[in-house]
TrEMBL record, chains A, B:
Catalytic activity, as annotated: tRNA(Pro) + L-proline + ATP = L-prolyl-tRNA(Pro) + AMP + diphosphate
Protein's organism: Acidimangrovimonas pyrenivorans
Function noted in UniProt: Catalyzes the attachment of proline to tRNA(Pro) in a two-step reaction: proline is first activated by ATP to form Pro-AMP and then transferred to the acceptor end of tRNA(Pro).
Top enzyme class: ligase
Pfam families named among the record's database cross-references: HGTP_anticodon, tRNA-synt_2b
Family named by the database record: Belongs to the class-II aminoacyl-tRNA synthetase family. ProS type 2 subfamily.
Oligomeric and partner information: Homodimer.
Subcellular location: Cytoplasm
Record-listed E.C. numbers: 6.1.1.15
Family matches, as HAMAP family: Pro_tRNA_synth_type2 (MF_01570)
InterPro entries from the UniProt entry: aa-tRNA-synt_IIb (IPR002314), aa-tRNA-synth_II (IPR006195), aa-tRNA-synth_II/BPL/LPL (IPR045864), Anticodon-bd (IPR004154), Anticodon-bd_dom_sf (IPR036621), Pro-tRNA-ligase_IIa (IPR002316), Pro-tRNA-synth_IIa_bac-type (IPR004500), Pro-tRNA_synthetase (IPR050062)
Gene3D superfamilies: Anticodon-binding domain, Bira Bifunctional Protein, Domain 2
Keywords: Aminoacyl-tRNA synthetase, ATP-binding, Cytoplasm, Ligase, Nucleotide-binding, Protein biosynthesis
Name of the molecule in the record: Proline--tRNA ligase
Amino acid sequence: MRLSRYFLPVLKETPAEAQIVSHRYMLRAGMIKQQAAGIYSWLPLGYKVLRRIEQIVHEEQQRAGHIPLLMPTLQPADLWRESGRYDDYGEEMLRITDRHERDMLYGPTNEEMITDIFRSHVESYKQLPMTLYHIQWKFRDEVRPRFGVMRGREFLMKDGYNFDLTYEDAMHAYNRHMVSYLRTYERMGLQAIPMRADSGPIGGDDTHEFLVLASTGESEVFYDSAITDLKFGDRVVNYDDRAECAAIVKEWTTPYARTDETHDVALFHDIPVERQKTSRGIEVGQIFYFGTKYSEPMGATVVTADGSRVPVHMGSHGIGVSRLLGAIIEASHDDKGIIWPEGVTPFHCGIVNLKQGNGDTDAACDAIYAALKAKGLDPLYDDTDERAGAKFATQDLIGLPWRITVGPRGLANGKVELTSRRTGESEEMSAEAAIARVAEIYATI
Amino acid sequence: MRLSRYFLPVLKETPAEAQIVSHRYMLRAGMIKQQAAGIYSWLPLGYKVLRRIEQIVHEEQQRAGHIPLLMPTLQPADLWRESGRYDDYGEEMLRITDRHERDMLYGPTNEEMITDIFRSHVESYKQLPMTLYHIQWKFRDEVRPRFGVMRGREFLMKDGYNFDLTYEDAMHAYNRHMVSYLRTYERMGLQAIPMRADSGPIGGDDTHEFLVLASTGESEVFYDSAITDLKFGDRVVNYDDRAECAAIVKEWTTPYARTDETHDVALFHDIPVERQKTSRGIEVGQIFYFGTKYSEPMGATVVTADGSRVPVHMGSHGIGVSRLLGAIIEASHDDKGIIWPEGVTPFHCGIVNLKQGNGDTDAACDAIYAALKAKGLDPLYDDTDERAGAKFATQDLIGLPWRITVGPRGLANGKVELTSRRTGESEEMSAEAAIARVAEIYATI
């Protein structure tokens, strides 16, 4: 993309309403615009990151064998009356009456609807196991929406639901989700720690939250520092292999890690004192096993091998897709702006032309731009008339991990500059070498 | 995808509520499930087609230089009070009150919000021309939703908005949209004819609808048969070239083509009588130029070269993404089921194992499946225990354009069968030849 043809409305001033750094930088980098309390437009740069995150979630869900579908945003109230949650859910549920006076609601989650789909179409235990998921906009009418997309009212969530014949099968689904989530977050450059949690309005016995450590997190967390040394890396997982998934879950759940809701002081003090850590954490996902809580009242049953009919064991599993943008920025920024991890960056590489209108720098930038695109990369070429200082400030603010700077003096020696946003280090090299280096970096992402 | 691990709930019976063929087949092929009047879940097969259509729309919009963003589904009523449409829009607008008693609505379209984004962030004529678009769920509270996704209440639409300095610039944006739409629909296997139309509640002077000819269409259309001979084909268009875009628009708007709303009997009778055609048509898109209708009341202005401040010229341009599934099926089916055009098919190729459990056919199917995937294709392998007849019926119903059939008798002679869903013709060949043929077909799509 050429910046002169893009819509990137960066702000010079820090907006007064933003209390935390991710909200400030998302506004200043022209990623979002508030349209009402807790309701945002995703401007082009923000939308691009949202799509990259969504794409990683889709890939990892499908790698684990989960099947995508899409449920609507609006739901009939009657489904929620069947589960008993219509009255329980409280004021966070946005209730709507249509022109025929039918009670509807904007879905805050989808346990009821997915159970309805299941009971309408699945009859036999032979169709199990099955995990269905979607990525769809949700609404929770928070009384005080704040922190930008971190606690918005309209938000994008991946929610998945497993249907299994037995408790043991459902626990494998639970483990499979934990494993796939570990990989999902790591691809986004995040360390998200699974912590034993409370189930809240979803219900159920087994549940883990995934928390990203950040000083602005909403929860206090307590953990054994051993857990932050764990890396998922590029291990190849057979998601059908119960023992393999269970072993990975054990690896990540053995070190102590809990939120204030489930914190156990005695257990915590069993950890060697130098490994006892407390911090704050941002919740970016949660997995639940809740057995037959929905399948029983709603009649989601299957016929078993012996001809009897039993309710299925279920769980639900969420990733806060839009909230992840805020969490990633909270975890990865400096005082100049955002530092995107390569896995989610909106553009792979910036190109800064220090002397727009100079025949040599223009030609060199055009060639670098074309070469990066030919390698399947997505560069942002700042071809505007701004001064060099302003161009660098924009690049630092929007946080592309790599920048190629092209100026007349360097070009005279056959050199451009390749700069890492994270370290700030620059290196002079030929344009060809810079292109090859950037391509090499993204080849492994 | 292996069918044994997929969720494809095909129905044997024709559901009573479905009046038109696309609705019947979408229900029978397990593509959608109604959750409330005019509100659907997109089951896995339907979701896949929806995503393919969305992807084509994104690609063609971006090819034309249009910039994607994403506006929320809910909007504050105040924005619509500024344009004067809050009271005008009538009962089709779903009005919502949140917990703080603020008036909200579920967006039926986005002229007001995009104008708000523009006026908040754009100051100078130098930032023009600009076209922003999104693909987002909309809601129109139709009094009698019917025909499945063809006239739903919650529906997915691409809506784009151009901002230009002058009338002439805006007319180029209009033409650019028409050209990009012609290409978009053709990639989906559709012939969508631009017809002069009425502007309705969007307002404006210039507008064309795109209609797909089908006996179940909601509009009566009148056209010169010369227009159905036009093909966009694989021409390379420079979307910045005004003359080139204008010439393509002229090519498609010179032959007479109008809906009953704008039909001119005298002009129609000037066409040679053998070319005078009437039919019914399904609207799948519409483009509008409406000048300063929104920019003036809402203060969306730019500073020009001479320092004066002028309201921008705007237009809006929609493609009915979810409705397109219905339109494509209406235009492409037979009495056995859907016939997907290659551009939008949910899976590229079916693989039918005539004797599941037989070592030879299983191994051959596994190898074909792996080979197709290695070529970047997305096959659906029917590895279930169903009888051959039932497998063929499912394949015909869900309408994949190509099928490779593997049976023990053919295999003994080193042959499989490649069948075209459209023609019904089968050809015996080696597995390698069938794989190569399928790959070759999709290489040009």
